[in-house]
Design goal:
By secondary structure, this protein is an alpha/beta fold. The protein is built from ten helices and 13 strands. The radius of gyration is 19 Å and the shape is globular.
Length: 354
């Protein structure tokens, strides 16, 4: 669904325009019937990703590859409980990566009793396709290795502001009636959680700093930027790291300022730092399960470019979503999980950096 913030301009657009966001909402339902298939991506986005993954990463993705993907959702006659029965979780995508490449993660978390809303950052993600067929393509000025800290800080700030705007919109009955058919009331957003990947993790921390409705947040494998590094947070926050990242690792290429190390003593609430063995940056996305579903086994060079490993896609999805859900259960449902207290036999891939 498209949400337009007419009170704010999109700073990375080629022309003056309001912030036009695309969001996806996943929610749990009761259903005894078989699932139905829904396209994983709209056609133009899928074609764009076919070409992009092929040209940039040398992935075996001929035309029609991503068009074949589908989400398995509940049948149309499934019954929906009152939306206010479920806590809300927001998601902010990585720089250069459409929100759609996190849909399976969002769907899996939603099935545990959450309303999960994924948000795109136009001109910061690779492509945003709108209902009228128009697209917003990535602005390479802000999304490149040499982007200025000022541009990155601005991108993080915009994504954080967008998160608060989306929360406000979720209270609107007319918005929710379109996102959740049959619903006659807005959502309760007085206490929510948020998570993000890479730059989306930085946006999560920034949004928490400025919006007290966000009761807890997770940064999946990316540097933090802006005032939150020095000001810190007083609510629960969790880092999820790939196998090359530690808080004291100053050589991490996507965190040259060692922001995790700097912010750690300034996190005054509950905090945790977990690390996933045999993982790289995009293990914390749908990439592993998408490749597995498509039957694509990238060679070592392509896997390294994609920032994934040979970790089984289903297993990667299970680990990432299980730990995210455990965190949300603690923050939003007051359910403590042993998963967050230390290593467990069921997940030997996960270690703790205290």
């Amino acid at each position: 669904m498209e949400l337009v913030d007419t009170s704010a301009l999109q700073p990375f657009a080629p022309t003056v325009q309001p912030r036009k966001l695309m969001v996806s909402l996943f929610y749990p339902v009761k259903s005894n019937e078989s699932t139905r298939s829904v396209s994983y991506m709209p056609p133009e986005t899928a074609a764009f990703e076919d070409a992009s993954e092929r040209s940039i990463y040398d992935l075996a993705s001929p035309n029609g590859t991503f068009e074949k993907l589908a989400l398995q959702l509940a049948g149309k006659s499934a019954t929906t409980q009152c939306p206010s029965d479920f806590p809300v979780v927001l998601f902010s995508a990585a720089q250069g990566t459409t929100r759609l490449f996190y849909s399976v993660i969002a769907q899996t978390i939603a099935s545990s009793g959450y309303i999960v809303v994924t948000i795109d950052a136009p001109y910061v993600v690779d492509i945003v396709e709108y209902p009228d067929g128009s697209v917003a393509l990535i602005n390479t000025t802000v999304v490149n290795e040499n982007a200025s800290i000022a541009d990155i800080d601005l991108a993080v700030s915009v994504q954080a502001q967008d998160a608060s705007f989306v929360l406000n919109q979720l209270r609107n009955t007319s918005v929710i009636s379109q996102l959740i058919p049959g619903s006659s009331q807005g959502l309760d957003v007085s206490k929510v959680a948020m998570f993000g990947h890479s730059l989306g993790g930085a946006a999560t921390a920034a949004a928490m700093l400025n919006d007290s409705r966000i009761a807890g947040g997770v940064a999946m494998d990316g540097a933090l930027f802006g005032p939150v590094v020095q000001e810190g947070l007083d609510r629960p926050f969790m880092f999820m790291a790939d196998s090359n990242r530690t808080r004291s690792n100053n050589s991490s290429p996507d965190d040259p300022y060692n922001s995790w190390f700097d912010v750690w003593p300034n996190l005054r609430g509950w905090k945790l730092n977990v690390q996933l063995a045999n993982s790289l940056h995009y293990t914390f996305s749908d990439f592993p399960i998408v490749l597995e579903t498509l039957g694509i086994v990238p060679n070592a060079t392509t896997a390294n470019l994609l920032l994934v490993t040979d970790l089984n896609g289903s297993r990667a999805l299970q680990i990432v979503t299980t730990y995210l859900t455990a965190f949300f259960d603690m923050v939003l449902k007051c359910n403590a999980s042993p998963l967050l207290q230390g290593p467990v036999a069921a997940f030997p891939e996960v270690t703790f950096e205290r």
